[in-house]
Amino acid sequence: MELTPAQLQRYEEDGLLFLPRVFTDAEVDALHTATKELARIDHPSRVLEKDSQTVRALHGCHLTSEVMARLTRLPRLLRPAEQIVGGAAYVYQFKVNFKAAFGGDVWKWHQDYIFWRKGDGMAEPRCVNVMVYLDEVTEFNGPLMCIPRSQRHGMIDVDAARGRGGWQDNVSADLKYSLDRETIARLVEDGGIVAPKGPRGSVLIFHPNLAHGSTPNLSPWDRTMLIVTYNSVANVPRPPGEPRPEFLVSRDARPLTALAGEALVA
Ligand code: SIN
Ligand code: MN
């Protein structure tokens, strides 16, 4: 699958592109099963909510799961990512955000790139987030809210919140770099807010400087989403100090080769 010129232009202008039903129910089932198995493993890459029980996120799943590794090389995800970053790409980050029923907590308004620039030394926002919906996303289960066109402002520099000082500050509900109210109000006045909702198997592509966030999930429905961040092989970061763990920032920057077909399971 390649993006059409009209779709690329939409992405360029709005900073996001929603594609309904890119994956079949059977494919989503396979991804969900792998996700649940990984979520049972007690590993530092698994982040819990403040209740210390509910799984908030998993990281680096493509490093250990065959189906997740194949997912990153499917032409229907990799080709659009290559079109957007302008050439060969590799997986910079792979995460699953659970936003569990009754317990999934907030993601404050933020841009992603500031974390990668300040934390990892990424020189340019020459990367893209490709989000796969593993559950139906509705207005009730904490859909991702995005401010169209906010990416045009580039990286908005903000002070780091005081946290515990580890990489966990980047993934907890007390986010390290979040945008303040005045900034959000200004961005929303220009671009409004959209919350792309749709069936499981849908894909949301969004820019690393797009302002986004999500509310807690009060509903009885999970909102599991998987996010692959592809980076250009010409934009490999140079960490300012000790690099973050490999499950958060892939060390393997070799260009991905697309699979010959679209089969998720070999
Ligand atoms: C969310 O899962 O709602 C937030 C995802 C993100 O900030 O990348
Ligand atoms: Mn984000």
Summarize the structure.
This protein has helices spanning 5-14, 25-39, 66-73, 75-85, 113-120, 181-191, and strands at residues 16-19, 46-48, 55-59, 89-97, 107-110, 127-133, 145-146, 203-206, 212-214, 225-232. The chain is built from 6 helices and 10 strands, in the order H-E-H-E-E-H-H-E-E-H-E-E-H-E-E-E.
Q: How does this structure look, described?
A:
The protein has a single domain (5-232), classed as q2cbj1_9rhob like domain (Jelly Rolls), CATH 2.60.120.620. 24% of the residues lie in helices and 18% in strands. The chain has helices at residues 5-14, 25-39, 66-73, 75-85, 113-120, 181-191, and strands spanning 16-19, 46-48, 55-59, 89-97, 107-110, 127-133, 145-146, 203-206, 212-214, 225-232. A hairpin with a 6-residue loop joins strand 2 and strand 3. The longest helix has 15 residues, at 25-39. The chain is globular, with a radius of gyration of 17 Å. The two termini are 19 Å apart. 45% of the residues are buried. The chain binds succinic acid and manganese (II) ion. Manganese (II) ion binds at residues 110, 112, 212.
CATH topology: the name is Jelly Rolls
Helix content: 10-25%
Evaluate the radius of gyration: 17 Å
Question: Please, how many helices?
Answer: 6
The CATH first-level class comes to Mainly Beta
Q: Hey, roughly how much beta strand do the residues contain?
A: 15-25%
CATH superfamily: q2cbj1_9rhob like domain
Total beta-strand segments: 10
Bound molecules: succinic acid, manganese (II) ion
Order of helices and strands: HEHEEHHEEHEEHEEE
* Strand numbers in spatial order across the main sheet: 1-8-6-10-4-3-2
Low-confidence stretches: none
